[in-house]
Design goal:
16 helices; mainly alpha; 495 residues
């Protein structure tokens, strides 16, 4: 006689087992591959916009400036809400509990619900963008129903991220092994705790912005919040200073742990680094910086708090970089002549993030008038690019724990990491120079937004496009490495 358990075990498909599983390793694969796929899609969207910017006299690749804007905004949304944040959840649901001494995440069913809710929301968001929706357009040329679908997808994605955040924070606070204090946590767990606290304060505000937009959009003719030319302005604060720095904070912790493990050296200034990373998290709270709700005569981006925080985060980032430099100085002899790929990626990620904070400080200097220029894009690229590199370093370092089986190909990972770093530097540097020459943050098919005549931004846009191409190539190499690792792990487990 066949028992019920036998029927369930033999009759369930791989998909059914995955959807109903509360195993953090299974959820980590969904978060990881889903997040990094979104990063790749976002990079491809940026590459397409880069091709369009080569000739600003007309829309050659896209049908109109509105379509260019849709892909431009999709680039940022895919990298942040659909890409880096979910990818960070991969390590938050697997590595962090182990570092805390917990067997698994607290509230495992809620963690599973969060993962699949985010995935459904991510798919709806991407479909909404592809169906001529997105987050509004300057010329009101998008499809209203598709825009509503995009907003609903983002709400689901945010709901999934918030639910997962609650599970992670609860695990760190309540699931630590006896005798392990918060001060004793490894840097990945510590920075995840600080970051998750900031996410818990910012993501609900972003969701409220989206709800206001959705309600107005779905009513009669949009009054204010749901007007197509106003939607992006309400959400843009999530993709610039200071909110964008919250993506970098967990990466700083990942890099510190990776460098400590690969060099065999503990940080001599641990307490200073704990305080510095906490300060970095405090300075990254950006829900207040919403230009859409500016009162006349007092733009939020020109207020003292906004400017002071832009400058204050630079010495904090430099202090963390100093701790990294000290660790490398004392443990460099243990790296050998060929440092591991994760070490190189971790170091490059911190350097890019520090550069991003410096660009952010430059951006708020009032006489330079850079707030609306492509310097904003340069800051976004450097910080988010550094975050992507740091996530890649974490995946490479803990890959065997996440996937199981034989290790990933270090050469392919290193090649991909160098390509990603090179692409980020090219895009960030050229956008910085173009912004100093007057090019707007969003440059559609209008020469008036590309700086003064003969300013040289055409050549700079070509270099930026080459950087975008290198970035996409590096991400493809990483995806290939991840698939090969997963395939090898399956073969090893079935052998």
């Amino acid at each position: 006689m066949t028992t019920t358990d036998e029927i369930d075990s033999t009759g369930s498909t791989v998909l059914e087992e995955a959807v109903t599983s509360t195993d953090p390793t299974v959820l980590a694969k969904v978060w990881g591959f889903g997040g990094m796929t979104s990063v790749l899609l976002g990079a491809i969207a940026g590459l397409l916009v880069g091709f369009e910017r080569l000739d600003l006299t007309s829309a050659d690749l896209f049908g109109s400036a509105d379509e260019v804007f849709q892909f431009w905004s999709a680039h940022r949304v895919a990298l942040v809400l659909l890409g880096v944040l979910p990818a960070l959840m991969t390590l938050a649901t697997t590595v962090v509990p182990r570092q805390c001494g917990a067997n698994t995440l607290i509230f495992p069913r809620a963690a599973a619900l969060a993962c699949w809710t985010w995935l459904i929301g991510a798919v709806l968001t991407i479909v909404g963008f592809l169906a001529d929706g997105g987050l509004g357009t300057p010329g009101a040329g998008g499809q209203r129903q598709a825009t509503a679908l995009t907003l609903m997808g983002l709400l689901l994605a945010i709901a999934g991220l918030l639910t997962a955040t609650v599970c992670v924070v609860t695990t760190i606070i309540s699931g630590r092994s006896t005798g392990t204090g918060l001060r004793d946590l490894p840097f990945t767990s510590w920075t995840t705790l600080v970051s998750a606290t900031i996410w818990g304060g910012m993501l609900p505000v972003l969701a409220a912005n989206i709800v206001l937009t959705y309600v107005d959009l779905r009513g009669r003719s949009a009054v204010r919040f749901g007007a197509e030319d106003a939607i992006w302005e309400q959400l843009s604060w999530m993709f610039t200073h200071p909110a964008v720095y919250v993506l970098a904070l967990p990466v700083l912790g990942i890099a510190l742990d990776v460098l400590s493990a690969t060099t065999g050296t503990t940080q001599a200034n641990r307490d200073v680094l704990l305080v510095a990373t906490a300060a970095f998290g405090f300075l990254s709270f950006g829900a207040y910086a919403q230009p859409f709700f500016d009162t006349p005569g007092t733009p939020v981006m020109e207020e003292a708090l906004y400017v002071v925080m832009a400058f204050a985060i630079v010495p904090v980032a430099l202090a963390i970089l100093g701790g990294v430099a000290d660790t490398l100085r004392r443990g460099a002899s243990n790296l050998g002549t060929r440092p591991p790929a994760e070490t190189v990626c971790a170091l490059l990620s911190i350097m890019l993030i520090v550069a991003g904070t410096a660009v952010g400080a430059l951006r708020v200097i009032a006489p330079l008038d850079l707030l609306g220029t492509s310097v904003t894009g340069a800051q976004f690229t450097l910080v988010v690019g550094g975050a992507v590199l740091g996530v890649g370093a974490g995946f490479q370092h803990w890959g065997d724990d996440l996937v199981g089986g034989p290790g990933a190909r270090s050469g392919l990972n290193l090649l991909g990491g160098l390509a990603v770093a090179g692409g980020v530097v090219l895009v960030g540097a050229t956008d910085l120079i173009s912004g100093l020459l007057g090019q707007s943050d969003f440059t559609g098919v209008d020469l008036a937004t590309a700086g003064y005549p003969d300013s040289g931004v055409d050549g700079l846009n070509l270099v930026s496009m080459v950087g975008s191409l290198a970035l996409v190539g590096g991400l493809v190499a990483w995806q290939a490495s991840g698939i090969l690792h997963l395939t090898a792990a399956k073969k090893a487990s079935s052998a």
